[in-house]
Fold this sequence. Notes:
Layout: H1 8-20, H2 23-30, H3 34-48, E1 53-56, E2 59-62, H4 64-86, E3 96-102, H5 104-121, E4 125-131, H6 136-139, E5 145-148, E6 157-172, H7 173-179, E7 193-195, H8 200-208, E8 216-219, H9 223-231, E9 236-240, H10 241-245, E10 250-253, E11 260-269, H11 276-294
Helix pairs in contact: 1-2, 1-3, 1-4, 2-3, 5-11
Amino acid sequence: MNISLIQWDHWRSFIAVAEHQSLSGAARALRLTQPTVGRHIDLLEEAVGATLFLRSPQGMALSALGQQLLPEARTMAASAAALARTVSAPADAMRGTVRLTASEVVGTEVLPAVLTPLLDAHPGLVVELVLSNRNDDLLGREADLAVRMVRPVQSGLTARKIADVPVGLFAHEDYLQRHGTPTTLAALDTHVLIGPDRDTAALAALGSAGLEQGMIRFRTDRESAQINAIRAGMGIGAMQAGIAARMPALRPVLQDRVSVSMDCWLALHSDMRNQARVRLVFDHLVAHLPPAFRHAAVS
């Protein structure tokens, strides 16, 4: 084994091949040629002195040693990315790169409008958005800030509750014209209810409002798919009120009977509190996310 021969580019190729399970897919992701990626893997295996991938006509699968090395390689990649963000500008500068993580729905439906005035006001600021619900994004330095609907409890993180997010049932006006508007929970039995499939937390939240899993006729754990199904007029489903307010054709259903509230937390790694650009984004989100969760427009 000759670790001194291993370069960072070799590990980048290793991670990419592991994720795409082919040299061609990794080459496209890294914007390198396939022979270059293949050479990186060959050199890495030579330096390690062991096989890291099992080759087959179906692709490349990690060997037992490769599986052991992948988490460490990803940690190294996250640290390298965090280092690049840190040196992207001086600590007291309102410019540079800030990496933000949020759920798919918040990242696609809420944050674009919230972040627009921030980027307008600070031309030197770069925001990288990662759609994920994993709290270890911050601990692994894969992100600087996180918007979460549950309180992060890991040590090393600074968290602040910034909003109560109302959630209710909504349906497209076309659906309600076709099927009528239910006035009781029992009446939902004759409607198409849209909701989660195996997400135990989401199912428990609906259950607390009197909606059982057996009532759900279109099931998916992807919130964006639920929203699009509601938007398409498929049926009735739960949605954040602020998101529904931005869709004029949606109407509330059983507003006085079904109402759930979620906490919204903003968290950052404690080491990042003194980074001016991170604090800039943090303070902007504290000010602008609460109204975005409640209303159609961001003030």
